[in-house]
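Below is one record:
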Amino acid sequence: MSDKVAIVTGAGQGIGEAIAKRLAKDGFKTGLVGRHLDKVQAVADQINQEYGQNTAFAFKADVSKRDEVFAAVKAVTEKFGDLNVVVNNAGVAPTTPIMEVTEDDMEWTWKINVDGVVWGIQAAATAFKGFKHGGKIINATSQAGVQGNPDLTAYGSTKFAIRGITQTTAKELAQFGITVNAYAPGIVKTPMMWDIAHEVGQNAGKDDDWGMDQFAKGIALGKLSEPEDVANAVAFLAGSDSNYITGQTIVVDGGMVFQ
């Protein structure tokens, strides 16, 4: 896959970082996009050190803002001269019981998780058409967007929406040779998840590891996911082996929900 170019949003840590590193390993020039330039730059520096200078490029953007998403795509395409894959990974995951959800909670979560995906799809499709070739758009949904979970009304609603957006735009963009798919992680060992585990452990008078272990219950494989497990699935969707797949959601949760 040499000379292919990918963009990954939310690439400063966790799943996004793992995806960016895996795509670089697979031969992609990679644009790393995030709200905090220092974080995405640190990941880009690691990639450049391992795979050669000019392999990764960091750019600051807030995916909830359409103009910033388009600016990020423009910057990456000007840097590398092409674009083949866009991974709309950036997102937030508030844990809020239904009776505590506020207008601000809904607006904030939807602007980042849903609007960010829509702007990413628009910017990707515009770039692919400009280069006069097809491409691959890969969106982050969640196990919580396949099956409803308690306390995740705000978050889960956005992830269910992303599955619908993926299906709709797959049909719209197929005529241009553009595929649109999604990946649905389960419970992944990310900094955000460790923060939640810490809170669970503290509430029970236990440590962080105990808090994290509570989330492994109900997973068929009996263990939590590593970010690299999710990156492996994204790498498949980004590669040529998935060329005849579009509008689909791949669930990567160790066996939490079954379709």
